[in-house]
Design brief:
5-stranded mixed β-sheet; about 180 residues; alpha/beta; globular; single chain
Length: about 180
Amino acid sequence: GTNLHPTRAAAGYLLETDTRLLMAFGPRTLVNLLKTGVDRHTIGHILFSHFHADHFSDFITFFFDAVMYSKFVGKRPDLTLIGPRGAKRLFGTILSTFPSFNAGDFRVRIREVGDRAFHIGRTRIQPRTVEHSEQLHCLGYRIEYGGQAVAYSGDAQYCRPVIELCDGVGASVLDC
């Protein structure tokens, strides 16, 4: 989909391993989580490929909802935002617009990653820099858990890193 479409959504994919990971948070992702009965307050990690609106704009609504939920309804897990260069500046600015949010409600960690693998629990995540736009650092991800692997790339062009991410996986989500 695109930013606005009457029936389709933009990028947003939930993956469950030993944790819940959301890959991208484009328009209508939050509505689709609600429609499918996913408890959005259990999502603790969000992977962003890049920062075009069709891949992250629903995060703003999600975060406002998370702040209100933690203040007035119940506890939610800490939140880790993972993305390419620029993530700290972008999300730092967004989070600063929520004056009612404080560190006592839940913690938010912003992590910029490059091409080095890391783990969340027993889930291995291999980011790779992929080609999308010359002025924008864009990542694809390979997620491995329990002997299975999934590749995700948001808006990447056909390039060697995308091929490497997809090699031997059970499924590839290649957005556009």
